[in-house]
Design a protein that fits this description.
The chain starts with a strand and ends with a helix. Helix 9 packs parallel to helix 13. It is built from 15 helices and twelve strands. It has 329 residues and is an alpha/beta fold. A hairpin with a 2-residue loop joins strand 9 and strand 10. The longest helix has 21 residues. Bound molecules: NADPH dihydro-nicotinamide-adenine-dinucleotide phosphate and ketopantoate. NADPH dihydro-nicotinamide-adenine-dinucleotide phosphate binds next to helix 1, helix 3 and strand 9. Its EC number is 1.1.1.169.
Length: 329
């Protein structure tokens, strides 16, 4: 059997995953189509996409959501803010029963896709690393790990074709593990610094550690299982993040291969004056806390501050002390 894969949302993640999957899909006689905006696709028509120095295999590039009609699997890689439109496009163009794989951060997007596309399988996926554009057709990845997805005949076909993908029967613990890693996004966004610069400073790391410690307490109270995603186990991370700068640099930063200009995707949105995914990230911790009666003042403060900064002409530049003050209430 051979299949046609569509990636809906040609941004940092969609293009990186497209670059990883294109050659294995083509080698099995399949096709891969990236659906996105012309401003992103035009440079890729002029110069093939390169991710980590490797040139991507053949892929079709289009702005037309009508291309979904040919897909046997649709991987969604837009921001959560675009999900309503994407669900309408899938409902209008995709064939009945074609599965949708969510590559978005957070747990809420999968819930929304399952509610909005109830007539087709929606598979959870998780991208553990950071990807940034280093040129119009060049991507840089930082951080370890493999993309994870729920097991399904189409995701099994992808792995058999050689696409780098780990399959699981239940992605819940992995999604909850990734959510802990994502809590850095709001701190990074509010600092106004690159992720690399922000992580060099203990004050910001203490804010991030407080958000993770609170989330761990909420998971415990709610009985939620999680797995380690990223370089360090979340419980150890809380202590490691609080270490002095010189020790953190030796233990973590030196091994991370972080691009000095890298930003979390939440920080890129805020810096570009766009709405962010903070409600699906820190907001999810607040929702779980509210449901089990566990207070979440740290994550609630981060949600409030990020919302306050959205749509402002200038990106915020909170000092670490100011953020520590805000989360202390
Ligand atoms: N970047 C990263 O390192 C990581 C990101 N993630 C998650 O992956 C998801 C995608 O993030 P990322 O790649 O950074 O986001 P990007 O903003 O880089 O990419 C999304 C792209 O999809 C486009 N788009 C939106 N709606 C549509 C549509 N209906 N049809 C076609 N294209 C559309 C957007 O255009 P426009 O801007 O015009 O809306 C944008 O170009 C997010 O949930 C993020 O949290 C997960 C792990 C790491
Ligand atoms: C950096 C990372 C891996 C964790 O927040 C990420 O998922 C993002 O940029 O959104």
């Amino acid at each position: 059997m051979t299949y046609s894969i569509a990636i809906l949302g040609a941004g940092a993640i969609g293009c990186y995953i497209g670059a990883q999957w294109a050659a294995p899909v083509a080698a099995r006689g399949g096709t891969l189509t990236l659906i996105g905006r012309e401003r992103v696709l035009a440079p890729l028509r002029a110069q093939p996409l390169r991710a980590e120095g490797v040139t991507a295999g053949p892929m079709a590039l289009t702005e037309d959501p009508g291309a979904l009609a040919r897909a046997d699997l649709i991987a969604v890689s837009v921001k959560a803010q675009a999900l309503d439109t994407v669900m309408e496009q899938i409902a209008r163009h995709a064939r009945p029963g074609v599965p949708v794989l969510s590559l978005l951060n957070g747990i809420e997007p999968v819930r929304r896709l399952r509610a909005g596309l109830a007539d087709r399988p929606v598979l959870a996926g998780m991208v553990p690393f950071n990807v940034v554009w280093t040129g119009p057709s060049e991507l840089h990845r930082s951080g370890p790990g493999e993309v994870a997805a729920e097991r399904h005949p189409l995701t099994t076909w992808l792995t058999e074709a050689g696409a780098p993908l780990e399959l699981h029967d239940d992605l819940g613990p992995i999604q909850h593990g990734k959510l802990l890693l994502n809590l850095v996004g709001a701190v990074n966004a509010l600092s106004g610094l690159s992720l690399y610069e922000m992580l060099q400073r203990r004050g910001y790391r203490r804010v991030y550690a407080a958000a993770v410690a609170e989330a761990l307490a909420v998971y415990r109270a709610a009985g939620i299982a999680f797995e380690k995603v990223g370089p360090t186990s979340p419980r150890l991370a809380v202590s490691v993040l609080r270490a002095p700068d010189w020790l953190f640099r030796q233990l973590v930063l030196k091994r991370q291969n972080l691009d000095p200009k890298s930003m979390t995707s939440l920080a890129s949105d805020l810096a570009a004056g766009r709405q962010t995914e903070v409600d699906t990230i820190n907001g999810e911790i607040c929702r779980i806390g509210a449901a089990c009666g566990h207070p979440t003042p740290v994550n609630a403060a981060l949600v409030r501050l990020v919302h306050g900064a959205e749509g402002q002409a200038e990106a915020p530049a909170y000092t670490a002390d100011a953020l520590l003050h805000e989360i202390a209430g």
